[in-house]
Design a protein that fits this description.
Strand order of the largest sheet: 3-2-1-4-5-6-7-8
CATH superfamily: NAD(P)-binding Rossmann-like Domain
Distance between the termini: 39 Å
CATH topology: Rossmann fold
Helix content: 25-40%
Shape: globular
Mean pLDDT: 94
CATH class: Alpha Beta
Largest sheet: 8 strands, mixed
Number of domains: 1
Structural class: alpha/beta
């Protein structure tokens, strides 16, 4: 690491659990962030600011005025701009040493599968249940860890699904029902602005910990937040006995 990098990341390097070795792990990591809305905004910002070497941003949607209440990586000047491209502009201004790639269309399962051959970790910041199940299945098949988060109204949740951990469940263990089932979304049910910031920041923290080799992780647990009462709950999430994705493991 050069002197400029040592200065930029000095507050992290001070942490004995991370140190220079952990910072160097971050610098060579490649993160895939799917969704640059309320959750993806703080995820991408903190990955870049923390020094993750390469970040690929995926979103097929454009910035809308109604997004700006919670999607803090965008601004009024970028209304009508693709969200991945808007986010990339913010990350370049924040940390130009971070390599940022953008994908401005909705990924197919084949495309995600191809991307994961050169990806260290995936962050699911989508709001579609079928998409979440598809991402989970591809990540598990490729043995790439997946940091999952969700936020609606006043409630949020975070967890890590790690195919390299023999005790870790997958997303299907948490939501085993039909992936085409109806689910809540912000457009129809609303969400308080800071909630997505809290959950997305927790996703970023969990991913940074994983990349830097800091333990323990949330693998095998789900962390729930009731934002209205500011109450956190950490619940054990076992592997679903008949899970079609992860139960039949070596």
């Amino acid at each position: 690491m050069n002197d400029q990098e040592l200065l930029r990341y000095s507050r992290q390097i001070m942490l004995p659990e991370l140190d220079i070795a952990g910072q160097q792990k971050l610098s060579v990591a490649k993160a895939l962030v799917i969704g640059l809305g309320g959750l993806g905004s703080p995820i991408a910002l903190y990955l870049a600011s923390a020094g993750v070497g390469e970040i690929t941003l995926v979103d097929d949607d454009d910035v809308d005025l109604s997004n700006l209440q919670r999607q803090i990586i965008h601004n009024e000047a970028r209304i009508g701009t693709n969200k991945a491209e808007s986010a990339a502009l913010t990350l370049h201004a924040l940390n130009n040493d971070c390599k940022v790639n953008t994908i401005t269309h909705r990924l197919t399962q084949f495309e995600i599968n191809t991307l994961l051959a050169d990806t260290t970790i995936v962050f699911d910041a989508t709001d579609n249940l079928a998409t979440r199940h598809m991402i989970n299945e591809v990540c598990w098949r490729n043995q790439v860890p997946l940091v999952s988060g969700a936020a609606i109204q006043w409630q949020g949740q975070i967890t890590l699904f790690d195919p390299n951990d023999g005790d870790s469940p997958c997303y299907r263990c948490l939501y085993p029902d039909d992936p085409t089932a109806n689910e809540l979304n912000c457009a129809e049910n609303g969400v308080i602005a800071p909630l997505v910031g809290i959950i997305g920041s927790c996703q970023a923290l969990e991913g940074i910990k994983y990349l830097a080799g800091v333990k323990p992780s949330l693998a095998g647990y789900v962390l729930y937040l009731d934002g209205k009462y500011m109450e956190w709950r950490r619940l054990r999430l076992p592997v679903l006995k008949d899970c079609p994705v992860c139960a039949d493991r070596a």
